[in-house]
Amino acid sequence: MIVHVAEYLAWAISALLAVWMLYDAVKVSREHSEESLTTSVEGTDELLSSPVAERLLDPKEEGA
Amino acid sequence: MTSVVPGGTSQQAVEATTDAQGGGRGHLALKKVLGPAHIWGLGVGIVLVGEYMGWNFSVQKGGMFGALIAAWVVGVLYTCVAMIDSEVTSTVAAAGGQYTQAKHMIGPLMAFNVGLFLVLEYTMLAAADANVMSYLVSTIANHLGYTGDVNQYAFIILAVMVLAFLNYRGVLATLSINLVITAIAALAIVVLFVATQGWSTDAQLHFQGLVSYHANALPYGWLGVLAAFQFGMWYYLGIEGTCQAAEECRSAARSIPLGTMTGIITLLIAAVLTWYVCAGSLPWQYLGVSITPLFDTALVNAGGAVAGLLAVGTVFATLASANGCINDASRAWFSMGRDNYLPSWFGAIHPRYRTPFRAILFLVPVAIAFAILPVLLNKPELLATVITFSILSALLMYSFMVPNMFRFRKLWPIGVLHRGYTHPLHPLPAITLAVIAALVLFATFLGYGTTLVTLVIFYPLASIWFVLFRYKYVRRGKQFSMPWPRPKGY
After folding, report:
1. Is the terminal CB of chain A with fewer CB neighbours within 10 Å at N or C?
2. pLDDT of B291-323, one tens digit each?
3. Do residues B31 and B248 make contact, with C-beta atoms less than 8 angstroms apart?
4. Chain A neighbors of B482, CB-CB under 8 A
5. What gap in Å lies between CA B312 and CA B141, rounded to an integer?
6. Which residues of B touch A43 (CB under 8 A)?
7. Which residues in chain A have their CB less than 8 angstroms from residue B481's CB?
8. Are B38 and B245 in contact (CB under 8 A)?
9. Distance between CA atoms of residues B167 and B356, nearest Å
């Protein structure tokens, strides 16, 4: 009996989570432009603030 | 600092474009919130389920010593993987891990293939974990006196959905939970060692009878040892997943090497402890086919409370592995979308949770499909095939890491690029990795030749598709946005 209840609960929770995630994904996609959602670039980390990075960020050195 | 989130609140917009938090320069970015402990939890979490189940099939192939030799030799392979990844990824603060390395070091076609290796490795592993999770629920129900059949579909899908939801809502909570449940699962192995008085060979462990004779130690000789390598992968498979979180670390240069190297140390210790307590407790004929060897060892040698802890550890390790795999597969898929190797639609980031939400959602049905396949077709042995897909994809990726490391040191020698970690003895680790990866690949071919051939056909076909239909969309210049100096010789 408990196992059957657990099974029904599992189905219900799964359905609820799936519907919520799909709803949220559609909502976000409608409310925000595609350009704004896909603007990310590779990370830069603390390398940006290190002395080595400052030298690397020199436009003359950049170009990789 | 300008808003790039027209529909979001100003708080979200500011948060999404803050230099310190998100990479700055007006880009919506993944959240930089992870530290070394999260990286440890991610790497060890993906792997530790292999200590709880799977590694012991190496005993079936090579006997007790065969499994131990496999643990050592494959341990060397993964130590090399961890060292190489720690160095390269400490300079590449980007999601995608080895895919991003391939993009920078070799080129688009290699990067596309490595990206597919990664997605297949982690999605297949997540599918296998979800399948195992449903098996564990059935086992627990049976232990509690339930005699009927448990609906496995319900629990497979529940496991994937709950973990996907966690991943969707944010990386910090996801990997913090992973850290806690992984630590408990790892601690459970140590508790078992203490409970069996592992320091004393006269107490509960019986190596004299179980291991010492040739028929138990090396029943199939050295060929058996070679065959055992394939399942020796289980002790460590997935530690390289730490690299996928590089873009979400507060400091990738610090967190990736620390988390990865402490992770591989933890796994080496866990592998030897696991072999030790199991080999001293169970005959090799049983250990080689056991589904839950650590739990069985606890039942035989430690009793109620410890067995309960190991049962919890088994469930936690399985959940942590599936959770980490969903995290990693989605980052690899997202990175490929961001660079237009796949439709750029997959390269979107959630403006509130700052996760690759479309990549996460897309991989959910894929993971569920492979997880339910063995149940649907009533062929439990298909689970081994699913796992072998994962292992072979990983092996192909390790093979790529060898030329990748040589090129990395050649193009950006020591001193030219800021490294969070520099691995010693180059090129010895890369050469060792190449030799052992070839050995394991051969061992896997012996056991799963058809699966290997399937993959060898699949990847070239996928490459042809990429060259014909996707390559024209790859933004060759835009995909390199890190402030690296020009490579040597260019």
Report:
1. N
2. 899 999 999 988 889 999 999 999 999 999 999
3. yes
4. 42-44, 47, 64
5. 14
6. 23, 29-30, 32, 93-95, 246-247, 252, 482
7. 41-42, 44
8. yes
9. 9
How many structural domains are present in chain A?
Answer: 1
Query: Which pair of structure tokens corresponds to residue B131?
Result: 């399948």
Phi-psi category of B437—alpha, beta or left, where left has phi over 0 and alpha has psi -120 to 50?
A: alpha
Contact A47 B483 (CB under 8 A): yes
Nearest residue, CB atoms, A14 vs list B157, B348, B351: B157
Closest B-chain CA to A14: B158
CA nearest to A8 within chain B = B154
pLDDT tens readout for residues B68-98: 999 999 999 999 999 999 999 998 889 999 9
User: Which one of B2, B3, B15, B27 makes the best mutation probe of the A interface by having the most chain A beta carbons within 10 Å?
Assistant: B27
Return d(Cα B483, Cα A52) in angstroms, integer: 11
Is the minimum CB–CB distance between A46 and chain B shorter than 8 Å? yes
Among B8, B91, B348, select the one facing A38 at the smallest CB separation.
B348
pLDDT tens-digit series, residues A34-45? 999 998 887 655
Is A1 within a domain? Answer: yes
- B140 vs B150: CA distance, rounded Å: 10
State the complex-level ipTM. 0.88
User: Cβ B349–A53 below 8 Å, yes or no?
Assistant: no
Most confident among B164-168, B303-307, B481-485 (mean pLDDT): B164-168
Distance (Å, rounded) from C-alpha B313 to C-alpha B321? 12
- What residues does each domain of chain B span? 34-473
Residues B31, B164 contacting (CB under 8 angstroms) = no
Name the residue in chain B with its Cα closest to that of A38.
Answer: B348
Q: How far apart are CA B182 and CA B170, in angstroms?
A: 18
Measured CA to CA, the distance from residue B196 to residue B339 in angstroms comes to: 52
| pTM of structure | 0.91
Q: Which residues contact B47 (CB under 8 A, 6 or more apart)?
A: B235, B236, B237, B238, B239, B263, B267, B321
Query: For the structural domain made of B34-473, what CATH number should be given?
Result: 1.20.1740.10
Q: Give the chain A residue whose CA is nearest to the CA of B483.
A: A57
The pairs formed by B131-135 with CB atoms below 8 angstroms and a separation of 24 or more are B131/B156, B131/B371, B131/B372, B131/B374, B131/B375, B131/B383, B131/B386, B132/B49, B132/B53, B132/B318, B132/B383, B133/B159, B133/B315, B133/B318, B133/B319, B133/B322, B134/B159, B134/B375, B135/B291
Residue B238, min C-alpha distance to chain A (Å)? 23
- Range with the lowest mean pLDDT among B63-72, B207-216, B234-243, B448-457? B207-216
Nearest in space to B91 (alpha carbons), one of A54, A45, A49: A45
Instruction: Residue B20: list chain A partners with CB under 8 A.
Output: none
Q: Is residue A53 part of a domain?
A: no
* Contact between chains at A21 and B418 (C-beta distance less than 8 A): no
Please give the distance of CA B412 from its chain centroid, rounded to a whole number: 28
Range of the domain at A12: 1-33
CB contact under 8 A, B247 and A57: no
